[in-house]
TrEMBL record:
Membership in a protein family: Belongs to the sigma-70 factor family. ECF subfamily.
Annotated InterPro entries: RNA_pol_sigma-70-like, RNA_pol_sigma-70_dom, RNA_pol_sigma70_ECF_CS, RNA_pol_sigma70_r2, RNA_pol_sigma70_r4_t2, RNA_pol_sigma_r2, RNA_pol_sigma_r3/r4-like, WH-like_DNA-bd_sf
Protein name: RNA polymerase sigma factor
Domain of life from the UniProt record: Bacteria
Organism: Clostridium perfringens D str. JGS1721
Entry's Gene Ontology molecular function annotations: DNA binding; sigma factor activity
Entry-linked PROSITE patterns: SIGMA70_ECF
Domain RNA polymerase sigma factor 70 region 4 type: 127-171
Keyword Transcription set for record: yes
GO BP: DNA-templated transcription initiation; response to stress
Length: 189
């Protein structure tokens, strides 16, 4: 709940009197920063997001209809910024993900004898190729879960879908990849 003084300051801000903006900034900075840090697990990105959020608050607070909802409005801005940042990071990672995924898969097989290692490299290449063929929604969920180590709940927030849908997409990805890899194996025989 907003106290009277804060409510008054928010009303002033809403009416383009930015004289006391720093008070709101100081009060909510840590909340936005630590929320961003929890979601992004990266201090640099969390700091950037926090700055972007308060720039948006400064520029758009006049659009806030009721100052009683400031906290939820602020956190919605933060969540939207975080989602955009995660999608951008994932997009950038997808560009280089073929190498990253291959490196990840190869690192899992370091202690394998050379003949098996060669087979695993071939399998990894096939797996990488099949992952790149998945539809975008499934591929994003797969990469966020297995390669970015995000929780089902975090992925659900980012994608704005229920946790059950995240689970379903992951299950579907696994089944698709299993079928395609089995088919490739049968063709190779």
């Amino acid at each position: 709940m907003i106290n009277f003084n804060e409510k008054e300051i928010l009303e002033q801000l809403r009416n383009n009197n930015m004289e006391n903006f720093n008070l709101i900034f100081e009060k909510y900075y840590n909340k936005v920063f630590f929320f961003s840090l929890k979601m992004l697990k990266d201090e640099y990105h969390a700091e950037e997001i926090t700055q972007e959020v308060f720039i948006d608050v400064f520029n758009c607070i006049c659009k806030l209809k009721n100052v009683e909802f400031f906290n939820s409005w602020l956190m919605k801005i933060a969540l939207n910024k975080i989602n955009c940042r995660i999608k951008k990071i994932i997009s950038e990672k997808e560009k280089s993900s073929n190498n990253d995924i291959l490196e990840f898969l190869e690192s899992e097989n370091k202690n394998i004898i050379p003949e098996k290692s060669l087979l695993n490299k071939e399998l990894n290449t096939v797996l990488l190729n099949e992952i790149s063929k998945l539809n975008e929604k499934k591929k994003r969920v797969l990469i966020m879960y297995y390669f970015n180590n995000l929780s089902l709940k975090q992925i659900a927030k980012i994608e704005n879908i229920p946790v059950g849908t995240v689970k379903s997409r992951l299950f579907s990805c696994k089944k698709d990849l299993e079928k395609k890899l089995l088919l490739k194996e049968l063709i190779a025989i």
